Amino acid sequence: MSTDELPDDYIGLSLVEKKEYVDTLDSEVNELSKMLNEIRANSPKNLLSKTNSPFIRYPPGYKFKSSAPMKIQKQKILTMCTFYQGTDRNVSVATASQDGTAVCWDASGLKYEAFRIGKGNLMSVSANQSGRVLATGGLNCALDFYSIGEELKRLSADPEPPFAFPKQTIVDTEYGRPAQFRLTLAGPTSAVTGLAFLDDVKIVSGSQDGGINVFDISEAVKIMDFQEQVPINHIDNGTEYVFCSAGQDGYLKVWDIRRKHEEVISINTSTPLSKALFMSEGHSIMTSALNNLFLMDLRSSSTLETYQSNLGIVSDFSISKSGRLAVCGFDSGIIHSLDVLENRWVNLIDNRKDVISGVSIIEDKVFCSSWDGLLKSYSPE
């Protein structure tokens, strides 16, 4: 302890009083250490025990069977997301390809929407909570929104043109029909590397220059921005106000749009982070960096667990709602399951021989995309 941390009257205390003061500090430190150890020991168990996820029905070592692969894109699939579409909450998948197209699929592999995005590789894709708006971002340094149905028209609060935002009628030559109502928002000054909807109309974007922007698509305006000094590699939503960012500098940061221009929590992993996902209970986040996964506790701002692999660089991963299962895709083409509670790599799900670009667990299915242009789904045997 430095002298700057001692009370002003410490020097004047008697030896007995000094000893009592130091003993009190030691007791407080020990109590804090005990609390931290309890969080480290119990948090994953608490996290995994309170759930009704379909995956909890299966033991950690269960195996997967795959569907027939869908040859869905002519070039590399660079990113993907899963979502629930419409009032029926049907499981859907959106893929974004190097050829500048985004495609929506149902769980059986039936294509029901397709959009020609334009120039620039797509690096991020996200759907809003109702599954009626698809957002894409990439090297065009802008956010493009496409309606699945009439959603953007409804959000504009104007049933007839002119819209509150520029309407662009784009004839899609590949799929032979006009694109749906389209909204383009400028704001990012470099490639958009991360997207996450906070609710049906608010979306957060992260970009290569460190910019983090929050947009309201119902008003077609930027409502807030945060500025980092390093590339943002991924954005994930926690609540309608809270989101996290994974930075190239190794920092995991949690932000609250009610607290402008200031992160709420910052944890340094010292390794460039490629992705971050909130666990379902909201107190923990799992991140990926090189060939490792990290489970972070937000209450203690510490790392609860490190999951190491020798399967390659983690290119994407997803977590089941229970928190017990993680599925990881690697740049080697391997897809592998991880028992989060036991810190054990369980089963080889597939070896695609090409970089796995997207992994997503939704209900009792796992969807994986890769640079070979294929999308496959996997279900427990």
From TrEMBL:
InterPro entries: G-protein_beta_1-5, WD40/YVTN_repeat-like_dom_sf, WD40_repeat_dom_sf, WD40_rpt. SMART domains: WD40. One of its GO terms (biological process) is signal transduction. Pfam families: WD40 (PF00400). Gene3D superfamilies: YVTN repeat-like/Quinoprotein amine dehydrogenase (2.130.10.10). This is Uncharacterized protein. It comes from Starmerella bacillaris (Yeast).
